[in-house]
Amino acid sequence: MKILHTSDLHLGISLGAVRLTEFQQKLPEIMADTVNKEKIGCVIISGDIFDRSQGSAEAYRIYNSLLNTLCLDCKVPVIVISGNHDSGARIAAFSELVRSGGLHLFGGYSEEISPVSVENADIYPLPFFESAYVGERLSDAEAMLRVTDRLRERLDKSRVNILAAHCFAAGGEPCESDISARAAVGGSCAVPLSAFAGFDYVALGHIHRPQTMKADNIIRYCGTPLKYSFSEAEQEKSFSVFDTDTREFYAVPVPNIVPLRVIKGEYEKILADAQTDNHRNDYVKIILADRFAGGSVYTPLKQLYPNMLQLEGAVPKTVTTAKLSMSELSEMSPEKLADMFITDRTGQPMNDEQKSWFAEALKAAAAAKEEN
Ligand SMILES: [Mn+2]
User: Fold this and answer.
1) What residue ranges define each of the domains in the chain, with the CATH number in brackets?
2) Contact 85, 70 (CB under 8 A)
3) Which of 44, 153, 258, 355 falls 20 to 30 Å from 68 in CA-CA distance?
4) What is the pLDDT tens value at each position of the chain, 372 positions in all?
5) Residues with CB under 5 A from ligand 1 (ion)
6) How far apart are CA 183 and CA 53, in angstroms?
7) What is the pTM of this model?
8) Helix (H/G/I), strand (E/B), else coil: 284
9) 7 CA to middle of ligand 1, Å?
């Protein structure tokens, strides 16, 4: 049997001010296509179904459509665990009722974890939990070890054992949209890979970059199905598929439907290239190699790329003033000093408008001085 593993759908997530539900609503169809083409026998969704614990109505519509499509149209059992972004209680609602329809929902911490058995596989659902539920003063790593130790004792070695979990595994490499995973890098909460020993396949969620951890068994982050940040612009998104007969896995690419990219280069060249760019409505982050990201470059770029969501400028080569002595500096006119300061900060000398503002400010300061 083939198991499709996905996670971190983050339904309702925004990129800057842009809601990505427009693209997420295509997920049910994309997943159904993969399930049919790859002859999938079971689907695991390893947490962070929603971006927020109280998902929007739109996010719930997509969730509802996804589960109905998989369970009713594709007729595959679906196992869902809650992630740190989800409300465990909400994910687990009606779980007893819907089980007979092939939908297995698990949310929050539970002392007793029973596997879902599908064909030759036992799938252990381990929703995201806070370590305090397991014991006092335990790190996330210790809590996870304690929980998986209990599960390990009861594994039936004649079956293919799979663990679905949502956590930060040691060595994991996050990306920009992994707000919580990034905070955990290098922290004591990283779960050592030994916590996952004994399971043939560990279907992880939490980190948005697809990756397989180096271990004797297969410990896999499938990553998000869609691109959710500019740091993911070059990533190929995929679903992970584990074959319980060959005990091998492979990735099935997900079509890139979020038009998101990073444009890097010199300001004038970006302006010139934009004339022949047929995808100017893409969501873009522009990184200027030769200019400060100030108002004077923002407006022309935003006119060309109305969906420019981020603009980064070059860090100007600074501190001309640092090379000058106090006596040299004290001999300079205020206009000259101001011009050097602006050049240092922005990489550009003062323009005429700035010069006239400065002249006015000087005049006002001189007048105020005379009054006193
Ligand atoms: Mn996530």
Assistant:
1) 2-253 (3.60.21.10), 260-312 (no CATH), 321-371 (no CATH)
2) no
3) 258
4) 999 999 999 999 999 889 999 999 999 999 999 999 999 999 999 999 999 999 999 999 999 999 999 999 999 999 999 999 999 999 999 999 999 999 999 999 998 999 999 999 999 999 999 998 998 888 888 999 999 999 999 999 999 999 999 999 988 877 777 766 655 554 557 899 999 999 999 999 999 999 999 888 999 999 999 999 999 999 999 999 999 999 999 999 999 999 999 999 999 999 999 999 999 999 999 999 988 887 789 999 999 999 999 999 886 666 565 677 888 888 888 898 888 888 877 777 888 999 999 999 999 998 988 877
5) 8, 48
6) 19
7) 0.84
8) strand
9) 8
